[in-house]
Amino acid sequence: MIRSLHRSSVFKWAAVALAVTIVVTGAAAQPNRSLRARVTLPNGSASQSIKIRLEGNQGEIIRDSFTDSTGNFEVRNLSTGIYTIVVPSDDRTYNTTTERVEITRYSPDVVSISVYLNPKEESAPRRKGERSTISAREANESIPKEARKAYNRSADLSKHGKMQEAIEELKRAIAIYPEYIQAYNDLGVAYIKLDLIDDAIRVLEKSTMLDPNAFNPRLNLGIANVRRQDFPRAEPHLRAAVAIDSSLPLAHLYLGITLWKTARSGEAEDEFARALSLGGSEIAIAHYYLGQLYASKNRIAEAVAELEAYLKQKPDSDDAQQARQKIAELRSRQK
Question: Would you say residue 174 has pLDDT above 90?
């Protein structure tokens, strides 16, 4: 599937960060762009020094290199066209993964995406004498086969809306392998979907204790606390998520919501703007929040402009009617 870098669907403010590819949009028409990929291992941690290459539309190799110490890979001076990112299998822990990306004249100067590696069915056994607690970078090498099977079954069940059955499979995976960071993260996400926020926070805290630098658990823990309206506890996790990967707009959106709800509208405005600069219509709901923020500051013209921008991009959204009512109210105040 081609990831086209222009208009796409919006992340709702209550959306959950799973293993998804973030598509970045923009409106600038520049002759050359940079493509930045952040590669994430199956357990949710950033890859380090793994093989990766960028191919052109005809299969020609544009760059053949390795990810850096933070899991990033960047190629500059690219023209518009279709490119393929290829991460070859390491023959132990993850399968070969490819992402096709279309860069158009509407793409921003720096196109940022995330590439999530799929785990292999088989995994290497723990070496004799190895310590029982291992880092996230090592964990994916030691996940037992039965734990991985339970995890994969949970993913299939979740796709079909069978959340309770998916939860049981995730619990089974964790019982087999108590250091299964990705399973803890997905269990937390499942609890959020069922509005079991306290349960979500409990398992996501466990995941972040196993690896403080895993992006998805950290972001989801922040989201869970936002859902509980516990903004002081949400903030450090959302700031940590932004520090781990500042290129993903969802973390900026939730941090903006948290800052706005704790009376720091200036900082919140910056985070909403940052989310929009990274995500465009993917994160159009940030226009809605900016409109509410400006309205609370009596910046009526700016509030109307943001709400209209939201309606232009998402005229049929769940919040569209409320946005229209707010615009009518604001215009009556201008008279």
Answer: yes
Two structure tokens written together for 285? 């709901």
Q: Name the residue with tokens 């200036």.
A: 266
Question: Is the model's pLDDT at 140 over the cut of 70?
Answer: no
Three-class secondary structure of residue 271 per DSSP: helix
Residue 239 has pLDDT above 90, yes or no: yes
DSSP 160-224: TT-HHHHHHHHHHHHHH-TT-HHHHHHHHHHHHHTT-HHHHHHHHHHHHHH-TT-HHHHHHHHHH
Region 29-52: what's the mean pLDDT?
78
Contact yes or no for 289/260 (Cβ under 8 A): yes
pLDDT at 58 over 60: yes
H or E element that contains 157: helix 145-159
Q: 260-266 long-range CB contacts below 8 Å, 24 or more apart?
A: 260/289, 260/292, 260/293, 261/229, 261/231, 262/231, 262/232, 262/235, 265/293, 265/296, 265/297
Q: What is the DSSP string of 33-67?
A: EEEEEEEE-TTSPBP-S-EEEEE-TTS-EEEEEE-
When comparing pLDDT for 334 and 207, which is higher? Answer: 207
SS3 7: coil
Q: What pLDDT score does 71 carry? A: 84
Nearest to 189 by CA among 105, 181, 252: 181
Backbone angles phi, psi at 318, to 5 degrees: -65, -30
Mean pLDDT of 271-288: 87
